[in-house]
Design a protein that fits this description.
The protein is mainly α and 328 residues long. It contains 13 helices and five strands. The chain has two domains: 203 residues, HUPs (Rossmann fold, 3-Layer(aba) Sandwich); 79 residues, Tyrosyl-Transfer RNA Synthetase, CATH 1.10.240. Helix 3 packs across helix 12 and helix 4 packs parallel to helix 13. The chain is globular, with a radius of gyration of 21 Å. Bound molecules: adenosine-5'-triphosphate (ATP) and L-tryptophanamide.
Length: 328
């Protein structure tokens, strides 16, 4: 079975966008791949974080993954900082990476503009991401389009290392969800719904209350035509609502368009809110049971053990190829 590996940064509360574009895709794939889902907490500290919030969010996110249907018997869950091999391999890869190629990373350029003090970690973070992937011989890496360049760096570093030292790493493939899965901010539908948005008015969080979900959807920005049809360019707000409905009901976008064709915007929003509330209430009920059950720590302890075993084997091979340490 091929291996799938992905991580969602604990840099904010998980959103409906994360569910539709990320988590639910992993749920669909869990029978087809041996899956590794980890929390890249060391990536989160490339920008300032509050320690108490970060600590709480790491476990909360794992609870949400489980509540969304990621089965602990089919996926290995672990926390990056609990496995020291990630940072160790990252260092060796840094010594095989070039300032020139790192300077071309577009996410660094974007994120560094928003920071007062730009850390070295923010600059080298894609190399740590390559280590996350290469330690486990991942075949496919599901991510958003913004991470494609980082997965390509991981491919380049794997090929470079293999050419220099002999076949050591699997060269991973990015797995990018289709355009339809891109959910937009409800207040600014030209922008993606994002967990690190400054205002959460246009962002539905997976643990939002029913009242907040309805309020956010009812006040979604639309247009003045009051006719429901799908046109991403001229009607981004309405198209976004239709997309959300289509993804949560597994209905084709054409069928959804047909279904809502005689609706006004108010009624459309009400029905979209109904399906979002139904889906998220189910996830939230499961999440509350999972938190009470102690399952999160159980799953993370098992995952930590397994991830360290796999990573150690790869790391030992790497240091022996490079000539580090002794007796290898
Ligand atoms: P950040 O704000 O920190 O960039 P984010 O919430 O925008 O975070 P990522 O952590 O970069 O998202 O992405 C994690 C996963 O969630 C990816 O698989 C990505 O495709 C998916 N995802 C995030 N936002 C959306 C969205 N609005 N629509 C569809 N998929 C999304
Ligand atoms: N950089 C990614 C999170 C991430 C990741 C990974 C994703 C860190 N390491 C390895 C896939 C594989 C992000 O910011 N979304």
């Amino acid at each position: 079975m091929k291996r799938l590996l992905t991580g969602l940064q604990p840099s904010g509360e998980l959103t409906l966008g994360n569910y539709i574009g990320g988590i639910s895709q992993c749920v669909k794939n869990q029978d087809n791949y041996e899956s590794f889902i980890f929390v890249p907490d060391m990536h989160a500290i490339t920008v300032p974080q509050d320690s108490d919030i970060l600590r709480e969010r790491i476990k909360k996110n794992v609870g949400i993954y489980l509540a969304c249907g990621l089965d602990p018997n089919k996926n290995t869950f672990y926390i990056q900082s609990e496995n020291l091999y990630h940072a160790n391999l990252s260092w060796i890869l840094e010594c095989n990476s070039y300032i020139g190629e790192m300077s071309r990373m577009t996410q660094f350029k974007d994120k560094s503009k928003k920071q007062k003090n730009v850390t070295c970690g923010l600059f080298t973070y894609p190399i740590l991401m390559a280590a996350d992937i290469l330690l486990y011989d991942a075949d496919v890496v599901p991510t958003g389009i913004d991470q494609k360049q980082h997965v390509e760096l991981a491919r380049n570093l794997a090929e470079r290392f293999n050419n220099k030292y002999g076949k050591t790493f699997t060269v991973p493939e990015p797995m990018i969800p289709e355009v339809g899965y891109k959910i937009k901010d409800l207040q600014n539908p030209s922008k993606k719904m994002s967990k690190s948005s400054e205002s959460l008015k246009g962002t539905i969080l997976l643990l939002d209350s029913e009242k907040d979900i309805r309020k956010k959807i009812m006040s979604a920005v639309t247009d003045s035509e009051n006719k429901v049809y799908y046109d991403e360019e001229n009607k981004p707000g309405i198209s976004n609502l239709l997309n959300i409905y289509s993804c949560l009901t597994n209905m084709d976008i054409k069928e959804v368009e047909q279904y809502f064709k005689d609706y006004n915007y108010g009624n459309l929003k009400r029905e979209v809110a109904d399906v979002v509330v139904e889906k998220l209430t189910d996830i939230q009920n499961k999440y509350n049971d999972i938190v009470k059950s102690g399952l999160i720590d159980e799953v993370l302890d098992m995952g930590k053990k397994k991830s360290i075993e796999i990573a150690k084997e790869k790391y030992d091979l790497v240091i022996s190829r490079v000539g580090l340490g002794r007796n290898n």
